[in-house]
Amino acid sequence: MKKFLKFTVVFLGILIIILLSITIIVIFKKYKNDDKILSNSLILNPLIEDVYEFKDFQIEKGQIHIYLENKNNNSQLIRTYNTKNGKRISEIKIK
Question: Is the four-CA dihedral 89, 79, 72, 94 of positive or negative sign?
Fold first, then answer.
């Protein structure tokens, strides 16, 4: 009976240590920001024309979304660029 209790206590102790280690590793991997390295300058391809006025931007998941408004006819659009190479991915016309 004593051997069984000792074995159970030691087994559960080792199990707790292993699970705690796994939990700590998972937390570090989740909050590690090694893929969020952005360069200080980004050259957009194609460039934003002079006719558009820059209103707002948002960066998420390797993309930069730029909100622009046409000075001439007040049309609005959102352009999406890749943050690694600066190439335009998409363009959405709002109005």
Answer: positive
